[in-house]
Amino acid sequence: MRNPFVMDCGEFHVNYKQDMAIWKISRVRMRVFVLLAIFAVFPMFASDYVIGLATLCGIAAIGAIGLNILTGFTGQISIGVGAFLGVGGYTSAILTAKLGLSFWIAMPTAGIITAIVGGLFGLPSLRLKGLYLAIATLAAQVIILFVISRWDSLTGGTAGMVLSRPELGGFVFYSERSYYYLMFAVLVITTIFTLNLFRSRVGRAFIAVRDRDVAAEVMGIDLFKYKVLAFIVSSFFVGIAGALLGHYTMVVSPELYSITVSIEYLAIILVGGLGSVFGSIYGAVFITLLPVVLRSGVELLSGFFPDLSTVLIGMKEVVFGLVIILFLIYEPQGLAKIWKNIKDYFKLWPFSY
Hints:
Elements: H1 16-19, H2 26-41, H3 48-70, H4 81-98, H5 103-121, H6 131-150, H7 152-155, E1 161-162, E2 167-168, E3 171-172, H8 176-197, H9 201-211, H10 213-218, H11 223-249, E4 251-252, H12 259-272, H13 277-302, H14 309-312, H15 316-330, H16 334-348
Antiparallel strand pairs: 1-4, 2-3
Helix pairs in contact: 3-8, 3-11, 3-12, 3-13, 4-5, 4-6, 4-11, 5-11, 9-11, 12-13, 13-16
């Protein structure tokens, strides 16, 4: 019989349900629920501009989680995520604007179509790796954008297509607040799915392929199957993000999915942390808000140095590249590792050893 005067020291699990929980400690679970509640009530007190920025951050986080599944967890480099966003956006646009289907059918269909396209371009992954695989995905970027911009009868060519906001039972997600909640629901589902994915057999196989593909094959893991499956799962979420982004901006056009977008998404997972689900969210917020912070800084300095604004206005790319270089040098594991170091410090404080 347990002595009520003895204090437990450590974590004690008495069944498999406790042992398999994502957050095993009650205070951590409570912290997660509190954070979800804060983000749920956040639009009630924020302006439309701030809510719009949060919505863009969330959509970018969904796509970044998809890319991190492929690059961070499976070790397959992709520079074609911008084009896969375009596949998702255009698929949803064609299904809703031309075929008249509901957004709730078009969005998952966009994810499935993007997953199929991603799986096809993932076929070379068995023979290619590293830089060669990156060039193959770059070819996907070029091919997909070429098809989108030239197939005028289906995609509208370089003029693009106009979309409408989703509807549900007569309610239109037209306001910034309503679309934020739509994005938030999809982001929570994506995060929970991904966290559980890497606690499953498939997720562990992805990680084994990333760590040492030869050893994984010796252990009986089918490299071809899991590499292509990683492309499929990753592209599905990127396609969902593309559909959400298309209906949020209400326009899809080839220049919105250029190679620059692919580089930005790579920067998101590098800054946030490779192989970290929450790192993808941190990186999406950081990279999305970086131009806003820079623009605010330029406007502030222009009040004191009017001639300096013309010089600083073109510094976005310089600062963008500098941030990536600094993270690669000083913290390769990104913001996720920085946040972990902060938590570990307060766990041990004042005993820093």
